[in-house]
## 1
Amino acid sequence: MSTIIMTTISLSIISAAFAFLLTLADRTIGDYGEVKLVINHEKEYIVKGGDSLLSTLRNEKVFIPSACGGKGSCGYCKVQVLEGGGPILATELPFMSQEDLEKNIRLSCQLKVKEDIKIQIPEELFNVREYDGLVESIIDLTDVIKMLRIRLPKGEEINFKPGQYVQLKAPIYEGSTEEVYRAYSIASSPLSKDYIDLVIGYVPQGIATTYVHFHLREGDTVNINGPYGDFYYQDNEREMIMVAVGTGVAPILSILRYMKEMNIKRKARFYFGARTTKDLFMPDFFRELEDSLYDFKFIPCLSREPADSGWDGFRGRVNNAIDQFLEDGENKEAYLCGSEAMINSVVEALKKKGISEDLIYYDKF
Ligand SMILES: Cc1cc2nc3c(=O)[nH]c(=O)nc-3n(C[C@H](O)[C@H](O)[C@H](O)COP(=O)(O)OP(=O)(O)OC[C@H]3O[C@@H](n4cnc5c(N)ncnc54)[C@H](O)[C@@H]3O)c2cc1C
Ligand code: FES
């Protein structure tokens, strides 16, 4: 009997000691204390170690581009590490060129800040700001695409180039336990600095788009930060070939609105790809631009419009329309926005016409 009691007591003591050690380990391993973060040799921050570099910077209101919300799948969050940061991780390697590796470029969402670290980022990222905007209106453009107008707080402005994007925060909501950030192109003109329009399509089971389509209401506050991106209007005299499918129209809208307001005298052609007339949003707006812009043609391309619908516009994909309508690539540049597959096929079609790859700008959604 006494042996059983002794064994029970011993086991209890061992279990308690084990639990204590586990708690201690949990508190100490992963607790990196305070570390020093130095940016561009001049800005110093004392930060709590252990978080990703991307989150650590965001906590200090320094915003690095990110399209996947830190999942390591977009490759947008690259930062040059001058000192600290440890060895590069396997999850970062697929995004790194030989030059990136030589310069010690890292994915800031993958790198954990465990020691003092020195980094170099482009100066313009210090202009990226965070805003709590008011959702002034939500309009259905199609069954699955909404346009949001987000009014910035009184007295605040956003300065961006037409074509750039912001990151929108989807907070925790019923059905989602994660706070995530996603990239959305600004669809409004940069001359309107006190609000932005976003065009957001619904992705089934998508965290941010479910939030926008089913939880966000007019009058709510949303958190955004930006602007970001190197896809934007280039100021020159070349003819512009714009190609977009679905929500890829958003940055093109911004560019066209800007051209109209600035009365820019450039030849421009816009190929808008959609499946049916139901997916072709704002057609009247684009048709009106044929009158109000200097030399503009709107070319809607429908890939799955029923044969008997009476549609007398182009039937087929945007790359087929380029094969058919674009004469040559002489003195032309292109702006493409949409899925990777669409971009790849359009780049091929444009190259066949003689447009050189460095004059083809795109954002892959
Ligand atoms: C520079 C840039 C600008 C962008 N601008 C816009 C914009 O103006 N409007 C807009 O609607 N989107 C835009 N996007 C896409 C956007 O950032 C999100 O990726 C998209 O809204 C899905 O987010 P989510 O959180 O709802 O889906 P997630 O929770 O990230 O994804 C859920 C699942 O859906 C898959 N998935 C994600 N996107 C798609 C898709 N498009 N089609 C099919 N499956 C998908 C994912 O692989 C995942 O399996 C842009 C992306 C980039 C990189
Ligand atoms: S890879 Fe997308 S944020 Fe880092």
## 2
Amino acid sequence: MAETSESRQLLEALARWVGASCPDCLEPLCDHGVLCAVALGLKDLPRCLNCATKGLGRDLVATKNHLARWLAGKDCYLRAWAKADSARCKTPCPLSGLLQEAEIPDEAELAFERTDEKKNDAPMLVHDFGDMGCGDLVLELRQKLRGVAPGAVVRVIATDPGAPEDIPAWLRMVGHILLKAAPPIYDLRKRLDP
Ligand SMILES: [Zn+2]
Ligand SMILES: [Zn+2]
């Protein structure tokens, strides 16, 4: 993805949404709030970070750490964030310290998150769901993943015709990483956050 188009999208989202109300709590969105929403994939209907986190069923602190790490790796977001810090937020903005407050990621953990193709991607567990329909499959998979360590790689085998769309979509929504999709085989890494 070209940095320029990502950065343009970001500026468009800021121009469009800063000052608009969060659709859930009706608080106005500041630059920081819009940046977080865009980073979470909500650029078409941004919510404030509290409501977005609740909506995604995530933990707020874990999401903040995750966002801070993610923002720190993207020049266009960092530039926009620096601008947001000097901008029109009402003070004190609870988000302005996000990058400073976040836990400093340790190198080992970062390396772990980045090695998508490396040795520790050999699946530790295999679940064959046969031709189970995707609704049931997702429920069952969620149940199985409860007993799996964070960061573990799990191979799912599913022949349902909806699986190539539904499995990646569900993983994205709940925050697990899809390592490989070669229907009927899907390798995923369980997310590190609680
Ligand atoms: Zn809200
Ligand atoms: Zn702000």
